[in-house]
Each structure stands twice: as C-alpha cells, then as structure tokens.
Design goal:
The chain is an all-beta fold and 315 residues long. The protein folds into 3 domains: 2-68; 75-165, Immunoglobulin-like, CATH 2.60.40.10; 173-307, Toxin - Anthrax Protective Antigen,domain 1 (Toxin - Anthrax Protective Antigen, domain 1, Alpha-Beta Complex). Helix content is 2%, strand content 50%. The strands form 6 sheets. Strands 17, 18, 20, 22, 23, 26 and 30 form a 7-stranded mixed beta sheet that branches. Strands 19, 21, 24, 25, 27, 28 and 29 form a 7-stranded antiparallel beta sheet that branches. Strands 9, 11, 12, 14, 15 and 16 form a 6-stranded mixed beta sheet that branches. A hairpin with a 5-residue loop joins strand 2 and strand 3.
C-alpha cells in the first residue's frame, strides 16, 4: 500500500495496529512523498502519523490518521441488511473480500434454508460482486448470503443479510396546494401524492390550482429502517424549504432557475422523523444517504402518513 505524504522535507512515518501496541514500521529517513507498506492483515485497523522535519531538524508532529483493511469475506451489501421498502426490480451487490475470485449466492424467503445453505436456495457461482434477480414479490422479506473463495481455493463464509420489498399501497405523502405563493392557512387542494417528484413545466398540479403563482406543502413521517448519515437534496425551479423534526435543513425561498440544494449531512438512527417540504412554482425533492444513490421522497398512504425512503447503498 502506498501512502501519499506532504513534500516538506525528511519525514518520520510510524504505523501501529489497532491495539496501539504493535509497531508495523517506524521509519525516520523518508524523503519521498510516499511509502509502500505491507503485507497488512485483513479486517484490521491501522493508525499512522507523519512528522515533518525541516532543514534545521525541527520536528512538526502530524495528526494521527487511520484506515481499515478489507475483510476476507463479502461485506457492505446492497440492499443494506435489514432495510425496507426495496424496489421489486432490485439486484444484489456487495463489496468483495480481499483476494476474492469467486462467490456462491444463496437467496430466498426462508432464513433457515439460506443460513444452512440448502440446495433449494443456491443460485449459483459468480465472479463479480453482483447478482441479477428476477422480479421480486411485493411486501416480502428476502434473506441472502455470499460465500467467498480466493485464488488458492480458501473459502470465507458470509453472514445472512435481509431486506423487505415495498408493498402495494404503502407509498404516498400528503400534499396541500395553494393558489398563492404564501402558503396560507387553508389549501385549495389536498391529496395524497405518490412522491415529491414533479416536472409540471407550463402546467400545474391540477384543478383548482393554477399553472403559475402557486405553492405547496408536503408533510409526512419519515421512517428509516437503517441508521446512516443522510443528505437531503432538492432540485427546484423557484423557492423551496425543508424541515426535519421542525428544524430547517434547506432554505432557498426566492426565485431562481433550476437549482440543486443540499442539506448538511445528518446522522439519523432507525426511527420516525417529522418531514415538511414547502415550495412555490415547481419542485422535485429526492434524498440520498451517505451510502446510497438519490431517491424520490415516498410515503405511506394510510394514516399516519409515513415517508418510506428506498435504500440504494454504494459504499
């Protein structure tokens, strides 16, 4: 492995394992901007520091950095383990273990059969970290695991992961529409929208709302099945505001051309959060997680309104 170092003259580079007791190496003669190290141990965290030394031999102590080596088994599944509301046309992906060359896939609705690797749930071998699925059943929990082999024929068993597909009638978010740009008390139109994802152009939401100078407010309970660091993203032509648990996280409430706005990264635990989105003229409001691609805002159509985001990790 090669570390890039600041070119500030001679350096001292020290690397320790996660116990802070075993020195992997300690080199005080480095003059280049990189250092190759290894071999390192899979699934172990290493800490390292670079001290710069100037021409007068004055030492400038560096910060401690860290990195973790990839494990030998498959990891970081997509869909994420335990996630819900997964699209029925999803496929499986994962991060390959160190030195992986082949994978065995087990997939089905019987957790025990998958865990015991029954032939009935064995789907075959693949050489790349992905597997294409047929169209899945709605509102169904699936279990899967990936066993890994390296080039020497050594196997590394995977653990059972699971996800649940989205069901019929489980999406929707309450939309209130106003024939003004001020979001007054009484909306002229209230309905359940499948998602906040519109391209109205010269049109409007529908009767009795006009085609311009209108506003909207969407409200829902944002239900997260998996904790992660999330970023909320809007793409609107004119004003938009977003609140999470009554805290404003996006504020661009003025006229503008199509503009992408991004909230700060927010660490959220599994649970239910209050979401409110307001805009005037045209809006589309997807979200994304730190480990996922952007997805439109969805909700559950029966009271209480639930906003159930799909998860698409790409770590």
């Amino acid at each position: 492995m090669i570390f890039s170092l600041p070119p500030a003259g001679p350096c001292t580079l020290r690397c320790l394992d996660q116990s802070f007791e075993v020195t992997v190496f300690d080199d005080s003669t480095i003059t280049a901007t990189s250092r190759q190290v290894g071999p390192l141990v899979a699934n172990k965290t290493y800490y390292w520091r670079v001290d710069d030394v100037d021409s007068k031999q004055k030492v400038y102590k560096g910060d401690v950095w860290s990195f973790t080596m990839a494990p030998l088994e498959a990891y970081n599944p997509s869909p994420r383990d335990g996630d819900k509301w997964i699209a029925v046309d999803s496929d499986l992906t994962w991060q390959p273990g160190a030195s992986a060359t082949k994978y065995a896939i087990y997939f089905g609705t019987d957790k025990g059969a998958v865990a015991e690797r029954y032939q009935s749930v064995f789907k075959g071998y693949v050489e790349s970290p992905s597997f294409n699925l047929p169209r899945l059943q709605q509102n169904t929990t699936y279990y899967w695991l990936v066993d890994t082999w390296d080039s020497g024929g050594q196997s590394y068993p995977g653990t059972v992961w699971s996800f649940t597909t989205i069901g019929p009638g489980t999406t929707g978010i309450k939309g209130e529409y106003f024939n003004n740009m001020a979001i007054t008390v009484n909306p002229a139109l209230t309905r359940m929208d499948a998602a906040i994802d519109f391209q109205w152009g010269d049109n409007g939401p529908g009767t009795p709302i006009g085609t311009k100078n209108f506003s909207s407010r969407w409200t829902a309970d944002l239900e997260l099945a998996v904790g992660d660091t999330y970023t909320f993203v809007t793409n609107t032509d004119d004003g938009v505001r977003v609140w999470l648990n009554d805290q404003m996280i996006i504020d661009n409430w003025w006229d503008h051309i199509p503009t992408i706005n991004t909230s700060p990264a927010i660490e959220l635990n599994p649970g239910i959060y209050s979401l409110r989105v307001e805009f005037y003229k045209v809006a589309a409001a997807p979200w994304r997680s730190c480990s996922g691609r952007r997805q439109p805002c969805l909700g559950r159509s029966s009271p209480p309104v639930r906003f159930n985001p799909w998860s698409m990790p790409n770590r």
